[in-house]
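Study this fold:
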Amino acid sequence: MFEIKTCPLYEKLSRGEPLSQSEKKLLADIVREEIKFLLRNQILPTPKDYERWFYIFCNLVANGQKLEDSALIELYNSIYKEENDLVNIEIDLKHTAQILSDIITELQKSLEESYEQASIKEQRITELQKKEKAKEDFIASLLLELLTLVRDLKRENESFLKKVEAQQKVINELKSKLEKVEVEANLDPLTDLFNRRSLERALEEFFNLCKQSKMSFSLVLIDLDDFKYVNDNYGHHVGDLVLAKVAKVLRTNMRAKDIVGRWGGDEFVVIMPNTDLENAKKVLERIKSQLGKMEILAEGKRFKVSISAGVVQCGENFQSWLDMIKEADRLMYEEKKKKAL
């Protein structure tokens, strides 16, 4: 069973003390897990809820435990039930104060009626006055306690909101940094396409689905013709320009579900889910046609760009996605040899 313990990191943040590098890393891990949990369970938290969930995840770290999502939600409800009950008590107290105010009004009315009978029952009026005074003192004392309680609750709430705002600022900064790092880790900086690591991960997933007969896909391996000549004669800056323009043509001619990336150097890979070999070749011909219309201007000279490619479809003849790459590479070099004849 999960036991609430003191979380040193949470205490330091509450006191506004500076964090060490290891504590900052731990804070980032906690925030990342908290954000994933909230997104996974479609929880749209208020700033107050952010503080509560952060407190729970800090305690999980201090306790050295991990809980299922359902257990976390149940834990949250059990921890903060008392605080929610206090809010209901405050509402009840306000209602009670209103009732007491109404009582005072009625008592004042009764007192006025008693004064009108003073000439008849002076002694009785005196006794009633003493009783009414005692009631007023009791009510005044009770109202004073209520006002003090409300004032204390308001002060605590303001302090809590300031802590939540500070935590939210830290969360937003960490989230922004994490998103930036994630994007940079998956994209090729020159072409803005997926990098080789992302392509290998995607090929592994698609090939496994293909082997389970859940999805078929085609793979296209593309290589620029005579790219070494461009680098040697016009410079690598022109070579980079060519790669960027080819990447743009590939990106604009693919469907939203297709995956396009730079395999390395002047090679590109395209993954086409739910696409057979015939349709994949049609897409490749369209790309070649678009590249044939493109001209590169460098040092006052214009030249065109062409590509060679190999296309394969996932099937029983391949034992891994690496076999698909090898076969596509073989077909691509066959096309290059034909062009050289």
Summary: The radius of gyration is 37 Å. The chain is about 70% helix and 10% strand. The mean pLDDT is 83.
